[in-house]
Amino acid sequence: KAGVTQTPRYLIKTRGQQVTLSCSPISGHRSVSWYQQTPGQGLQFLFEYFSETQRNKGNFPGRFSGRQFSNSRSEMNVSTLELGDSALYLCASSLVRGTGSDTQYFGPGTRLTVL
Amino acid sequence: GDSVTQMEGPVTLSEEAFLTINCTYTATGYPSLFWYVQYPGEGLQLLLKATKADDKGSNKGFEATYRKETTSFHLEKGSVQVSDSAVYFCALSDKGSNTGNQFYFGTGTSLTVIP
Fold first, then answer.
1. What is the pLDDT of residues B17-67, one digit of tens each?
2. B86, B73 in Cβ contact below 8 A?
3. A31-76 per-position pLDDT tens digit
């Protein structure tokens, strides 16, 4: 079974631009979560989508948004990029039946560098 | 709220030494507990998990026991190898809370094993 895939793997943008990252979950998984990882702040939760609905949201500004499609693929968008947005963005998928919790399986991440 | 507190690193050990990485948690419901490992340039990989009190998770020589009385989930390995050098994350998912499949991660512990 294929794992979680994320595209692109690396991105370089300049301040003020916007960026879209993509995540394809493991087949059959309906929950997709996004995290930002930086050396200073560690792993920070961005949001979780389940059946095309945002179910949880972390403490990030509105410049960070996401969506999930009917095939469970997810995208996250960051508008008006700032230098501090440079990070590894990780996507994780879970099987999750109903409202229960389940193991998260991570993709390799997208390394975003903002110049 | 839910949280995970993890032993600060970095940790440096000689090959074949015994490893312990401490992890304690706070949860409002009935958490599942996890250890993830991250190798350089990669996403997080599930190492082991335990879903209820007194369960022991194990994988690749690593073990952790879910201790409800001490709210702990310490990671241990009897004899580390150079290939175990990585960052280790303790995490919880609280099934009893109304937060979907949100995970709470510790800050990570960097382990370096020297020959």
1. 999 999 999 988 778 999 999 998 889 999 999 988 999 999 999 999 999
2. no
3. 999 999 998 888 999 999 988 999 888 999 999 999 999 999 999 9
- Mean pLDDT within A19-25: 98
A33 and B89 in contact by Cβ < 8 A? Answer: no
- Interchain proximity B93–A101, CB inside 8 Å: yes
The helices-and-strands tally (H runs, E runs) of chain B is: 0, 12
Residue that the structure tokens 């920070």 belong to: A44
Q: Cβ distance A6 to A105 under 8 Å?
A: no
Maximum CA pair distance of chain A?
Answer: 42
Task: Assess whether pLDDT exceeds 60 at residue A100.
Answer: no
Closest by Cβ to B44, choosing from A50, A56, A106: A106
The overall average pLDDT reported for chain B is 92
Separation in Å, CA A40 to CA A1, A43, B3, B37, B61: 34, 9, 18, 18, 30
Kindly report the nearest CA distance between residue B15 and chain A, in angstroms.
26
Interface touch A55/B100, C-beta < 8 Å: yes
Q: What is the least distance, in Å, from the CA of B2 to any CA of chain A?
A: 13
Which residues does chain A have within 8 Å of residue B45's beta carbon, measured at their own beta carbons? 106
Phi-psi region for residue A67, left (φ > 0), alpha (ψ -120 to 50) or beta?
Answer: beta
> With 90 as the cut, is the pLDDT of residue B2 above it?
no
Closest chain A residue to B49, measured at CA:
A103
Min Cα distance B34 → chain A (Å) is 8
